[in-house]
Amino acid sequence: MMSNERHSTNQPNDSRPHEGRAPGRKQSRLIFLNLRRKRELFPSKSAPRVLLLQGPVGPFFRMAQALLNESGFDAWRVCFNIGDRLFAQRGKTLNFSGTAEGWDAWLAEMLSAHGFDFVVLFGCERQVHRVAIACCERLGVPVICLEEGYLRPGNITLEFGGNNWRSPLAGKLPPRSYSGRYADRRKGVAYPSSFSAMATYAFLYFSLRNLFSTASERKLFHKQKRTLVSEAFYWIKNYYRKFRNLSANYRCVEYLLEHHERKYFLIPLQVHDDSQLGLAAGSWNSQRLILKSIVSFARSAPASHQLVFKIHPLERGHSRDRQFIEQVSKLNDVADRVHIIDGGSLGLLTRNAAGVVTINSTSGLVAIHHGTPLAVMGQAIYRHPDLAFCVNKGIELDGFWNCKKVAPAKVRSRYLSWLHERCLQPGDFYAYEGMEVAIRALRDRLLEAVGRGRGEQGRPPARVLSASAATRAAKPEVPRA
């Protein structure tokens, strides 16, 4: 394990051996020297300390760190590769490279030695973040987990402890005393520039990461199988297919709505390396879902119904699922009833479907919103028998095609309102206007947590309390760090 740190102030290269080393402790002298220099980076603590790990591709965490430091926090950032460093500040930045075991030891030392009060991360299923969450649980350090919004557009997900199937709300319904209605909730604001900004940031991030990262940095990559050459090829193919299939997608959707309204089942496929297709999916992946659903559909679905597979827009260039779907459909004599699209409105298709089948995509929440029967195969935040047809074994899917069970409108409205209230914040991770909104929401949640004194740990510093009052009143512009 190798670790090193970067700070805006040059630090002396102390080569003295570490004193007070625990006898029998197996750690290299180099590691101890690095930890000694790391201690020199930190002044005495006078404000709540926040440690930001990996964020969304782009400048979101850089801007968040700048605003937190202006708002009375002492915010630091850990970078794991050159892609992270591209979008990081020069000051208050730490670097780590090495194994998961080394990361666990390094982070535990960092949190314990320097009194960090919060950790903030994006994507709780990334390997570095799974290790970090487990480490923070041992040390009692709260973790704010960010993710794409459960309900889009115009929302981000912000929860303490985890997201999706790791969310504190996973598999639960609101308490009986809860009376909120989803219709009364603020509607998210769409940010048209979000996708193009995300694509640009992702290209820069993954290009630099794959070209210039060291061997030790590569050990903790997320999306490890994506190489620069292959990604360039797949994204060219994505845009080619998008425009080539535009009219075909339109004709297919028009045909379904005109001739098979409420008589087709929709299966929105997920990105092949979606973090939710890991532990949360169990043994399910897109290929197994395609195979099992077509076989079950051919065996048990009404003869008048159709089956529609929607390839994810981000998977359009990578996917070979179209050929697989066609082959399995022919083998099961339902080729004339199975359709494949890679575009179109998910909301429109869901609203007019007879049912939706998913592993654990957030498209399940769209089905709940529209009152469309839903089958869920994996672990998901909404996996509850009152909300969905929960499949444990593939054969159980046979019972879904003729099942029209939908939770009452009041139950669905209360659930979505509760989820919105507890998990979502306005904003966006990629469009600049949305980033400003989301970063202020993150800052405010941290201020609320500090204001509560983190349970029984005492009154927060006056510096942060005064910053809290000032920032809530003024709502200053997020700095372009």
TrEMBL record:
<feature type="region of interest" description="Disordered">
    <location>
        <begin position="452"/>
        <end position="481"/>
    </location>
</feature>
<protein>
    <submittedName>
        <fullName>Capsular polysaccharide export protein</fullName>
    </submittedName>
</protein>
<dbReference type="InterPro" id="IPR007833">
    <property type="entry name" value="Capsule_polysaccharide_synth"/>
</dbReference>
<dbReference type="GO" id="GO:0015774">
    <property type="term" value="P:polysaccharide transport"/>
</dbReference>
<feature type="region of interest" description="Disordered">
    <location>
        <begin position="1"/>
        <end position="24"/>
    </location>
</feature>
<dbReference type="GO" id="GO:0000271">
    <property type="term" value="P:polysaccharide biosynthetic process"/>
</dbReference>
<dbReference type="Pfam" id="PF05159">
    <property type="entry name" value="Capsule_synth"/>
</dbReference>
